Give the backbone structure.
Amino acid sequence: MAESAVFSYEGTDRKGKRTKGEIPGVNPTAVKVELRKQGISATKVKKKSEGLSLFKLGGKIKPVDIALFTRQMATMMKAGVPLVQSFDIVADGVDNKKMKELIRAIRDDVSSGNAFASSIRKHPDYFDDLFCNLVDSGEQSGALETMLERIATYKEKTEALKAKIKSAMTYPIAVIVIAFIVSGILLIKVVPQFEEIFQGFGAELPAFTQWVIGLSELAQAYWFVFVIGLGLAIYGFGQLMKRSEKVRNSVDRALLKAPIAGDLIMKSSVARFARTLSTTFAAGVPLVDALKSVSGATGNVVFRNAVDQVANDVEGGTQLTFAMRATGVWPNMVLQMVSIGEESGALDEMLDKAATYYEEEVDAAVDGLTSLMEPMIMSILGVLVGGLIIAMYLPIFQLGAVVG
């Protein structure tokens, strides 16, 4: 069996727009086939470098590993390979030691007579309730391979969506951090050299230069306090996010109202909701149970609360479209597609179309955000680094004018 891996791809979507991303797969051919199913014509598919095997062998189990495992299990079972033997084949092709151990633990559990769903429920860190419920539904209906294929598609698209958003945020943050580091080096190491030169001028320095020199003296005296304080602040905020649901909810609400990122997060949450509900409903899960499983997959407390409210209203006899409209958080386009789906009896298909539409909207929003960020980043770099350089050269320019 070919070694499993994560592939990066470039190509064009149904609208002819250039797109790129990452997707798990066995080989480039299989990746191209899967991308074609998603409406993407791949022009370049390349295996991502995994780094040194020493690090990879002891690496953490990531969601993309679970997606790849699910896809491979679906492929093995559709090819007629028995379940237990499928575990062995997939485990042999995995390089991540922890992932290999996880697969073999599940295999041993299944071999001893337990159901696949009950076996993976013992590993909640890697398989959430939604995943377990869908596998259980597939086992009960006798269509486990089909269900695994649906779960794999769902996981792949969800992870691709997360990767898009992460890539949009990582670049500007990295550049700004580097800009602050460069500015710090200039203030601590370079500005003092200019200060010694200015002391021999015997003239009053420009106000801007005096301010920068003061800032430099402050940075030289307290840079370690600033670094430690910033580190503690980041660590403290991270701990608050982990331990306090109130803080997490407040951050979620604030992000949704953010001028630029808010629209991106909204579309992402809608796409996750539609994709997850489509997958669960198509699997034969009753609508109320499906909604209860979906609430945690939206990724934002506003939408999670809205889905919980919708589930309660639907359980009380309200039609899904009316229950969603009452929350006031769903776009009209989604409401219309859900309404058509309910009337035509093809709710899962309409939700799938809505998910695809909003996933494409997220792609477009990420591209737009990247284009918008570039001039903003250049402005920040110009103000921070360029401002320091100008402040240092202003007295020299004035001296040159006096001499002239």
Q: What stands out?
A: The mean pLDDT is 81.
